[in-house]
Amino acid sequence: EAFDKTAKMLGLDYPGGPKLSELAEHGKPQIKFPRPMTDRPGLDFSFSGLKTFTLNTINASELDPNKAEQAKADIAAAFQQAVAETLSIKCKRALQQTGLKRLVVAGGVSANKQIRTSLTEMAAKEQAQIYFPRLEFCTDNGAMIAYAGCQRLMTGQQQGLEIFVSPRWPINELP
User: Fold this and answer.
1) DSSP E strand stretches across the chain
2) Which residues face 129 on adjacent strands?
3) Fewest CB within 10 angstroms: 18, 33, 78, 142, which?
4) Domains of the chain: which residue ranges?
């Protein structure tokens, strides 16, 4: 969501995440973007402040028409780097706090090359295994949810349509 909204701020077409990543490959992360909530001890994270910082950076920059595309690429690169580093910091902390040695990365953003690289390097330093879906399954969270449902069905787990659904349902409480 943060990638898609940032891409929209930069005037990129849909799908925003891949377009932003593509643009970031041509940029230099010269602007120091914040690493949200990494100064706090918990595992929570939010990118709303990072999106606001990005918007303010875009609005504050007086883009020279001859250099506008490079400026956008630099902003995209700085944003992407901030997200990748934030996720690495939080995932490292999660591995250390739990003592677990396996990390599963899912969702559309798991296709992002810089995020994959950053998390893979962090996992190697932590001597942890890391798992990513194949790229064709990273385009939509719906595809991953459907796959999880298929796996449950194949193991005989079924639930009727009368089940109560909650948008914030902890996965460990699934029937």
Assistant:
1) 102-104, 129-131
2) 102
3) 142
4) 2-155
Rounded Cα distance, 161 and 97, in Å: 38
**What is the average per-residue pLDDT within 96-109?**
92
Taking all residues of the chain, what is their mean pLDDT, rounded to a whole number? 87
pLDDT tens profile 9-29: 998 998 889 999 999 999 999
Q: Which CATH number fits domain 2-155: 1.10.10.10, 3.40.1620.10, 3.10.20.30, 3.30.420.40?
A: 3.30.420.40
**Distances 167 to 95, 145, 164, 170 between C-alpha atoms, Å:** 26, 13, 10, 9
Amino acid at 53: F
Cα 82 from chain centroid?
10
For the segment 62-76, the average pLDDT, to the nearest whole number, is 79
Q: What sign for the dihedral angle of Cα 52, 47, 76, 92? A: positive
